[in-house]
Amino acid sequence: MTTIPRKTGETGYVEGSFRDRHSRVLRSQGRIMRVLDETAAAEWRALTNSDFLQRAMKQGRVVGTREIGCSEADLAEFGSVWTMALEHDAIPFLSWPYEWSFGMLKDAALLHLELLGEALEAGFTMKDGSAYNLQWNGAKPCFIDLGSFERWQAGEPWAGYRQFCQLMLFPLLLQAHLELDFQPLLRGSLEGVDAVSANRMFGFARRFRRGVFAHVYLQARLSQSLGDTRRDIRKELESAGFSQELVKTNVKRMRGLVERLEWRRSRSEWGDYTKEHNYSDDDHQRKAAFVRDAVAKEKPRLCWDLGANTGQFSAIAAEHSERVIALDIDALAVERHYQQLKEKGPANILPLVYNIADPSPALGWRGLERPPLEGRDRPELILALALVHHLVISANLPMADLIEWLAGLTRSALVIEFVGREDDMVERLLRNRHDQYHDYQLDVFETCLARHFEVEARLTVNRENRKLFYCKRK
Question: Taking the CA atoms of the chain, what radius of gyration do you get in angstroms?
């Protein structure tokens, strides 16, 4: 039987798991484990006797989990309260809700509601409604917080309703109805968007749009009226006799609301880039072959495609990579990529909304709850195609700093593209700017590259205006 590892410097608590006092998550050499106290262990035993959990795990909607053997002495190394240990299947790459597209957050919310509805049918509920309880296997959401499930008690209301609203429903409503990107709002607070703030953003005129009055306006009014009260509202709700059927009905209605929410933006700055690029068909095929050859030589465990747009080169990288993280600043491009992956795959690509020049920081208690991208894993191979001119000119990043950062980020290799000043795209970026970018020159770029990398192969396309480099880190 698999056992819990001894406590060492390589084994420790996952920082973001401390909020539930009844269980904690451990990480050790790629293994993910959860220790439970007697209360959580009793809930787990009841849960394992339910067909609901076994079915959800088999379908991949809940992370695969099993009990592992451990002695009291083993558990005591991690604290005196733990009585049981579980092991979870490891999620390939962690991401946070403020890095997801609209469709990703919507599908995560729908999975949460789907599982909650099934749990209620089986006599269980969820004690919270956090978007952080969901992760991704490619374009498929997966619920990871087994400690959230507990047996439903008669008269108990929907305990996670407020949290679900703040972290999933309100962000979706704001983007669907107001075209406000939710990512900066969720990045601004791990608690999400509170009802009072959401109500102010909607104002009076838009109060009666789908879902706003019932879930935003009324909740904001209730929150303000109860702000200083000493009443035990949860106790009063339980005493009022919330039947299980009423909770099921509320969850079903919420699911119907979320299913109908749509983000109708049709264009963005880079959402149509793959249709509008200025490569000839021959040049485009040569570029694709160059990238494919480089990835085939590297065969990386993890590849990051920076500025992936709708994922054309991510798909090429996925042919010879265990996992590809496709990052782009344009939320519409990422949304289109996500919908393509849902429909056609491949299953080893995770698309994320990400601004390289203004990245997701370390957030939460002691800056450790939600690590930044670089703190979660590092790739063996980075693709930086048609990206450097945006970062140096649009984001004002010094060329030397950019190349040094890429060298520190990749474990092994880099495929990078330099777009010359005569290219239409660079001319467009410089058109209404004071040209202070003396470091945006091919010779400067190659000098910076040579400090950190050995160039293995080169390719010139687009009438000599674009040059690709396959490099190995020194």
Answer: 25
